Amino acid sequence: MCGKRKIHYAWKILMVCCLLQGATLGLVQNSRGLFFAPVSESICCTVTQFTAQQIFFSVANIITLPFVDRILRRNQMPWILCVIMTIFSGATVLMGTFKSVYQWYVAAVIQGAASSFLILIPTAILIEQWFEEYRGLAMGVSAMSAGLTGVVTNLFMSDFVMNHWRIGYFILGGIAFVITVPAMAVVVEFSPETKGMRPYGKKKQDERIVLKKAEYTPSFVMINVLLFFCASAVAVASAFLQHFPNYAISVGAAVSVGAMMTSLAMIGNTIGKLFMGVLTDRYEVWKVSFIGLSLIAISFLLLFMSNNRIVIYFAALMNGLTLAFSTVMMPLLFSEFYEEVQYGKALSRMMIFTNLSSALGANGISVICDISGTYQGAFGAGFLLVIISIGLLLLVMKKNPNYSVNSGKNNGQ
C-alpha cells in the first residue's frame, strides 16, 4: 500500500507567516482605531493627544529597522521571534491597565521597535528561503491574512471595545500571543538546509545581481534608485486611503460615501494581494508590476477627472492596490536583484523609506488640499508619482545590461 504524499514543510512555514501577519497587523495594528474614542474619553485627553502615540511608534520602528536582518540571521530566529512577539502582545495587554496617555507613548515605543522584527521582513525572508515555486502565492496569502483578520476583528470587536476597552486590550493581546508564539517555537526554521531539505519547487540557478559585487556599478545604482523611489511613491499613494472620508465631504457627498470608498479600497487591497501574488508565479514580476502600477495610475486619473459616484467607487476599489503593491510586489521586486544574505537588509532599508514617505505623504496631501481647497491637485500629484515609477521601471529594463526585456531574467554578472 502506497503511503500518502507528505506535505512539504514550506506550507507549514507559510501557515505560521499567516498567523504572524494576522496577529500583528490584522489583530493589533489594524484595530488601533477602535480604541481612539473610548480611551481618550475615559482618560480625559483629546483624540489628537492619544493618536500621537503613532509618532513614537513610527520613530522607534525606523530606528530599529537597520538592525533587524542582522539580528534575525545571526541568532536563532524562532526564539528571537517568540521573545519579541511576547513583548509586543504583552504591551497590548498592559494597555488595558493604563490610566495616562504618556503610558501609551512608552508602550508605542516598545511596540514600534518590536514590530520591526515582526511585520513583513521575517515573513518575506522565510518565504524567500522556503519557496522557489509559488513564492508569489505565498506572499499574497500571508499578506492577505492581515487584511482578513483586520476585517473580522473590527467587525466583531467594534461595539465591545466602545464599552469595555480595557478588556478589549486583554483579549487582543492574549489572542495575538496564543496563536503565534507556540506555533513559531515549534514550526519556524530559518532555512530548509537546517532540516536537511530543499525549498519547495525546483531549485533554479540564482541569477540575481549580488549587492556585494555590484553595488558601485551604474546599472545597480539605477536599480536601487528605481526600487526605492517606486517603494516610496507607492507608500505616498497609499496615504490617500486615509483621506477618502474627507474627500467625500469636500465634494458635497454624504459621510457614508467616504466610508464606502474606504471599504472598497480595503476589498481591493485584500483581493489585490492574492491576485498579484498568483500572477507573479505565472508571469515575470516586472510584467505584473506594470499591471499593478497601471491600475493604480488609472484610479488616480479617475479620481482627478470625475465626481460621479459609480466612477469614484470603482477608482477607490483599484486604489486599494497601493497597499497590496507595497506588501506583496515590492518584496518580490527586491528578491529579483538581491541575494539571500542581502535581501533582509534591502527590505529594512525599503521599510525605512516607505514609513517616512507614508508619513510625509499623509501630511503633504493635507497641505495640498488646504492650499487649493480641493483634492484634485493631490490626486493629480499621485497620478504623476505613479507614472514616474512606471517610466523608471521601463528605463531600467531597457538600459540595464544585466536584464533581458524579453526573458524577464537577469543575465548575471
Could you describe the 3D structure shown?
- With 413 residues, the protein is mostly helical.
- The protein contains 18 helices and no strands.
- It has helices at 9-28, 32-42, 47-51, 53-74, 77-95, 101-118, 121-130, 135-163, 165-187, 211-214, 218-238, 244-250, 255-282, 285-305, 309-319, 321-335, 340-372, 376-399.
- The longest helix is centred in the C-terminal third of the chain and has 33 residues, at 340-372.
List the helices and strands and how they pair.
Layout: H1 9-28, H2 32-42, H3 47-51, H4 53-74, H5 77-95, H6 101-118, H7 121-130, H8 135-163, H9 165-187, H10 211-214, H11 218-238, H12 244-250, H13 255-282, H14 285-305, H15 309-319, H16 321-335, H17 340-372, H18 376-399
Helix pairs in contact: 1-7, 1-8, 1-9, 2-8, 4-6, 4-17, 5-6, 5-9, 7-8, 7-17, 8-9, 8-13, 8-16, 11-16, 11-17, 11-18, 12-13, 13-14, 13-15, 13-16, 14-15, 14-16, 14-18
The secondary-structure element order is HHHHHHHHHHHHHHHHHH
Estimated helix fraction: over 70%
Number of helices: 18
The assigned structural class equals mainly alpha
Q: Mind summarizing the main beta sheet?
A: none
Q: In whole angstroms, how far apart are the ends?
A: 50 Å
- Beta-strand proportion: under 5%
Unreliable segments of 5+ consecutive residues: 206-214, 401-413
Q: pLDDT average, as an integer?
A: 79
Number of strands: 0
Taken from the alpha-carbon principal axes, the silhouette is: globular
Structural Rg: 21 Å
